[in-house]
Amino acid sequence: MVTIEEALQIITDQKVKPKNEIRNLSACAGFSLSEAISAPFDMPSFDNSAMDGYALCGISKEYHIVGEVAAGDTGQFKLKEGEAVRIFTGAKVPKNTTAVMMQEKTRVTGNKLFLEQEPKKGQSIRKKGEELKKKQVVFEKGYTITPAGIGMIGSLGIDKVEVFKKPVINLITTGNELVKPGKPKLEGQIYESNSYALAAACENYGFTCMDKIQIEDDLEVIKTGITASLETADVLILSGGISVGDYDFVKQALEENGVEEQFYKVFQKPGKPLYFGRKEDKFVFALPGNPASSLSCFYIYVLPLLFQLSGSKKAGLERYSFSVSHDYGNRSNRPSFLKAKITNGKVEILNGQGSSMIQSMALGNALVFLEAETPVKKGDTVECFLIS
Ligand code: AMP
Ligand code: MG
């Protein structure tokens, strides 16, 4: 048995070798850069107008309109003192432009332009290089590409991006009692829901479960399932059969597959019988079968490894402190991850904390971490793991 900190440390300390790939700009959201991106040119690359209006030469309230420049015009216009051109947002400003005046503050008679007030030098001009200078690092290696990141990279003219590959994740659920949703079930059987929840949790954080199989509590069948699954997986996630019951064969099946235990059992609630193992560069998590335990363990332990393997700098769920909205008489003799809901800057620890209870987790958005036997009072600050 290890502590939560020890378990997390063992995961963090794994030596991993993320692989690279080149992806199209349109297909790299959520991937992490395997090399930094630098600006190939100044951004913006030319002085341009921030407004629809007039580009002016000199400081005055009256100008002579001598032409027009629209966005995309590539010519080189040159102004003389007292001259103005009609200009549109994003258009390259003519040479010698002192400022741009928005059209709402102008009046035109024939080719005469009158301003309400004199312009300020540089007004409404987006200067070349004001956002980024050529060769400046835009994103560091390990940056996880967001939609805005895609926009930024595209604006640099880059259409192929070097990123870390995402790990291949396979899922095996075990249990004789399990029936797939949509099928009739007999008294004594239950619906298999963990594979759906775990696959959805993977998707939520940008990962995909490639292969999902469900097998019975039979040592030989589990062994064969693990062997087959490990052929393609970077990370194999098993659910159920890892506790101490007579039908819990997963640990033995992993051992007989040459998987080396990194830890087994964590002093926590829920999810005590959590197993983490490794075979060469492949990783195995065996999660307890109780739905809330398996999902909590995924969020707290599996997710950090998935981020590591995908070259991300993210360490796992984001953690923030919030004050509790009510007293909570925590008598658990183990450190706990409690299903909770953050609203309006306060966190509520929800009813329905049983390991098998998933409704509270579905209605919540966080896990509150509490040390063993530490009741909390309304207004106390607690550590929260945010679930998105
Ligand atoms: P186990 O970890 O196999 O001892 O299972 C613990 C509890 O979780 C039992 O009540 C199982 O019926 C339930 N359980 C196991 N696997 C699943 C699953 N895939 N979906 C829903 N419940 C499960
Ligand atoms: Mg079982």
Describe the structure.
The chain has 388 residues and is of the alpha+beta class. The chain is built from seven helices and 25 strands. Strand 19 (275-279) and strand 20 form a beta hairpin. Helix 1 packs parallel to helix 6 and helix 3 (194-204) runs parallel beside helix 6 (291-309). The structure holds adenosine monophosphate (AMP) and magnesium ion (MG). Magnesium ion binds at residues 175, 217, 240-241, 247, 289.
Give me a quick take on this structure.
By secondary structure, this protein is α+β, with helices and mostly antiparallel strands.
Characteristics:
single chain; 388 residues; alpha+beta; Molybdenum Cofactor Biosythetic Enzyme, Chain A; Molybdopterin biosynthesis moea protein, domain 2; Molybdopterin biosynthesis moeA protein, domain 3; 4 domains; 6-stranded mixed β-sheet; 7 helices; 25 strands; 19% helix; binds adenosine monophosphate; binds magnesium ion
